[in-house]
Amino acid sequence: MDTLKVRDAADVGQVVRAALASEQPLEIIGHGTKRAIGQPMVTNALLDLSALNAVVAYEPNELIITVQAGAPMADVLSLIDSKNQQFAFEPVDTSALLGTPANRGTIGGMIGAGLAGPRRVKAGGVRDHLLGAHAVSGFGDSFKTGGRVVKNVTGYDLCKLLAGSWGTLAVMTEVTLKVMPRAESERTLVLRGLDDVTANTAMTAALGSPYDVSGAAHLPVSALHPAGGALADLGSPRQPLTLLRLEGITASANDRAASLAVALGRFGASDIVEDGVSAALWNSIRDVAPFAAHGALGAWPVWRILAPPASGGAFGQALARETGGDVIYDWGGGLIWAALPPSADARATLLRQRAAAIGGHATLIRAAEPLRRTVDVFHPLDGGVAALGERVRQSFDPKHILNRGRLARGFNA
Amino acid sequence: MTIMMPASDQAVLGRRDAIVAALRAIVPGEGVIDSAAEMLPYESDGLMAYRQPPMVVVLPDTTEQVSKVLRYCFDNGIKVVPRGSGTSLSGGALPLADAVLLGLGKFKRIREIDFDNRVVVTEPGVTNLAISQAVADAGFYYAPDPSSQIACSIGGNVAENSGGVHCLKYGMTTNNVLGCEIVLINGEILKVGGKACESAGYDLMGVITGSEGLLGVITEVTVRILQKPQTARALMVGFAQVEAAGECVARIIGAGIIPGGMEMMDRPAIHAAEAFVHAGYPLDVEALLIIELDGPGVEVDELITRVEAIAQGCGSTTCQISTSEQERLLFWAGRKAAFPAVGRISPDYLCMDGTIPRGALPEALARIRTLSEKYGLGVANVFHAGDGNLHPLILYDANKPGEMDRAEAFGADILRACVELGGVLTGEHGVGIEKRDLMPEMFSDIDLNQQQRLKCAFDAKGLLNPGKVFPTLHRCAELGRVHVHGGKLAFPDLPRF
Lengths: 413, 497
Description:
The structure holds 2 protein chains of 2 kinds. Helices cover 31% and strands 23% of the residues of chain A. Chain A is α+β, with helices and mostly antiparallel strands. Chain A folds into 2 domains: 48-181, Uridine Diphospho-n-acetylenolpyruvylglucosamine Reductase, domain 3, CATH 3.30.465.10; 183-397, Vanillyl-alcohol Oxidase, Chain A, domain 3. A 5-stranded antiparallel sheet of chain A has the order 4-5-9-7-8. Chain A has a 4-stranded antiparallel sheet with strand order 12-13-11-14, sandwiched between helices. In chain A, a hairpin with a 4-residue loop joins strand 16 and strand 17 (335-339). By secondary structure, chain B is α+β, with helices and mostly antiparallel strands. Helix content of chain B is 35%, strand content 20%. Chain B contains 18 helices and 19 strands. Chain B has helices at residues 10-14, 16-26, 36-39, 63-76, 128-135, 154-160, 167-170, 204-208, 242-254, 267-277, 297-313, 325-336, 338-345, 361-375, 403-420, 439-442, 445-458, 476-479; strands at 32-33, 56-58, 79-83, 99-103, 110-114, 119-122, 140-141, 177-183, 189-193, 217-224, 226-227, 231-239, 261-266, 287-295, 316-321, 348-351, 354-355, 379-384, 389-396. In chain B, the strands form 4 sheets. In chain B, strands 12, 13, 14, 15, 16, 17, 18 and 19 form an 8-stranded antiparallel sheet that branches. A 5-stranded antiparallel sheet of chain B has the order 5-6-10-8-9. In chain B, strand 5 (110-114) and strand 6 (119-122) form a beta hairpin. In chain B, helix 9 (242-254) crosses helix 11 and helix 14 (361-375) packs antiparallel against helix 15 (403-420). Chain B is globular and about 65 Å long. The model of chain B has no long low-confidence stretch (mean pLDDT 95). At the A-B interface, strand 1, helix 1, strand 8, helix 6 and strand 10 of A face strand 9, helix 8, helix 9, helix 11 and helix 17 of B.
């Protein structure tokens, strides 16, 4: 298969137009770290954006950064970190989960995947921080949407569609993202020994408190594998951990942590971990370290399940019991990562029925290719919404030239 | 009227009686209004310079009725203009002579309050403020707070992606809605999103929000609610130069502080507001900042000190810090009443709504001053300074021949300047008809075509709210055509591996 390494946005347009003319679908890649997510694609060539790697403009006082889509995550994160800023949505680094090389991945991939970390409960997701984009549609047209300011309602907000579209609508070439100040301090309140449902109740109370909680996660004992790093250390002796994060200026983080501990007194004694130790914990949760590809559960398929937050505990507990799998809760119960023992369909039917019943949905985020050929990786949508989504896709890419087959089965290689 | 609206369909107008009868069969009783006198309140929205009686007004009160009305219009090629409370400042709900005006005012019920999942499920006609009031006893509120929040509906907020004073810290409507029930023009009822943080599939909620009534009619919204901050205090800081105030805004953000709100007023706005509400604003300054910090007491106290020091470092000439809730509200009273206050000093005013990069504030103000001289019209400036959202109020007298046209030309030049300075045409009021013909200042034909293709995915006949947002309309068949250049193209000559 050809790899077409584009040099600039004009090249991208040319490649897409050529692909249209010759009806050769393209797989869009940056560093290629997330190629194993999605249905196996039906494509004839790789469109490689990794050379579009420039930082176009970084304006810390405007809280924005404009970069080319192939800009390496590691470089961009270290650049904004140098000004004490961050992407508030805490992008997930999927390398441990998928077993790809560390410190790889591009901004374009981050947006296309739309995977946000623990702070989503407070700061929103990738879609909330993408302010503008230049992209080449499946018509071969180079268009822009949005702008370089936060407050903007000029025209349809196509950025929302691009975030999390897995490269199926357009090839982004340049994007503007919102950056936010890094908090001065962080504190994590640690509760121990709660079962999943009780932990869910505690997280619900915390997120419904005025203490501005910026992370609410729960790890049952089974998820605390010896290889789990920071989490496993904290979970010793083996007890489930419920973690609640408070960030801000030091005096405020201390004050709120203390107040929250009192407010959650009925859930038992708690202790507090600070700053660096706390940050390591949340990075492990963000990157789903307990289910790492090199760890004990590396061979198990992993699901990413979205649920109404207050329903997460009961859902996950039942799922783990029934399947013998392990679960981790983030977003106060609204996000459940589940590693399930290998089976013919990765328990897709069961999971989808259960998730739909509570108003949730499930994505098979890690599975070997043969399994991804036979199971719907992304949650099948209801008829009307599925049809509308398909019309939306066609409004960007009528010939299905971009990442063909990644979102839905039904394409033959 | 200086803006061209789509030509009326004479065939539709000729069938008006039959259309009214058909609508009455769907929405019984007083839900269909067809007398000229009773349709009067629907002739315009918050952009009152523009008026147009609709063909007929329909006020359904169930989703099923909305679906049937839309299906009927779809089958019969009749245009539909949706309307919430009619507070749009960009003419988003301006009727068309040959269109059904579909009012959602009867959808006034909050369907569910779910504190555990921190959401409210509501009908679209509920006002923005009513949502906050419904959850206030439990200490919650709905964060986006457009200044029309007493009157504006949550459905309209979703259509316009409304902002408000506090969106610097808490986001706009789009950052605070999770799902909706939407009825497409063919009558199809869809549920998008829900109580989960993210929906499956493409983020349709994200693109429906801010679509200005062109994609569908919303019949239910699920919004996020938050716990109210424990305390809030405000600083009122005066500056002898606008530049110093702009610098102060930049340094506060640069110091990593995101205030709950950060507003700026210029001299004419300060004077008008002070004369109206007597908030104790200093009258000998060129710019006034109102900066609100919210959160736990210890945090607010600490940040107030930091902000005060930054302001002094920028050469502030006055600085008052609220010591009571009453005083904080007084600081805000003048800002919140700025529009009516300006209404007292001028027979008419035009409220503009561009956004610029924060750093360009002084430059934008200088340009507005120059334009004010050029057009011979006064201007008072009110900004959401924290996010660079300008609201210049252009003063004019509609009774003086030519003044309204001049005011509109002045406004258009301000928005052009916003785009030139790296900003956008509208920060929170929407494009509507007001900025429709300025869209090419910001977007190329290709950009706008892609947006219209999306419109085609929802409404291929172009029946929903035509004449808004897009300066030129194209047929969906034409937009959907893929142009393959010169037959088979080879991939360009690039490094291959």
